[in-house]
Amino acid sequence: MEVPNPIDNSYLIHRKWMTVAIEIAQKAGEAGEVPVGAVIVDSEGKLIATGENRR
């Protein structure tokens, strides 16, 4: 049985949330805003909040 590499697992988790932030930024850009998106995630990987640039 292969033990998961914690570094690889951490990378995949970060990549998942960065993808969400990028999608939020794209939507802000499509709405005429500066394309900035953000996510806040707790230490257990639970989504706390999202946000985007607003004038």
Account of the protein in words:
With 55 residues, this protein is α+β, with helices and mostly antiparallel strands. The protein has one domain. Helix content is 45%, strand content 20%. The protein contains 1 helix and 2 strands. It has one helix at residues 6-30, and strands at residues 37-41, 47-52. A two-stranded antiparallel sheet has the order 1-2. The longest helix is centred in the first third of the chain and has 25 residues, at 6-30.
Features of this protein?
55 residues, alpha+beta, two-stranded antiparallel ribbon
Please outline the helices and strands.
Blueprint: H1 6-30, E1 37-41, E2 47-52
Antiparallel strand pairs: 1-2
Summed up:
The chain is α+β, with helices and mostly antiparallel strands and 55 residues long. The protein has one helix and two strands.
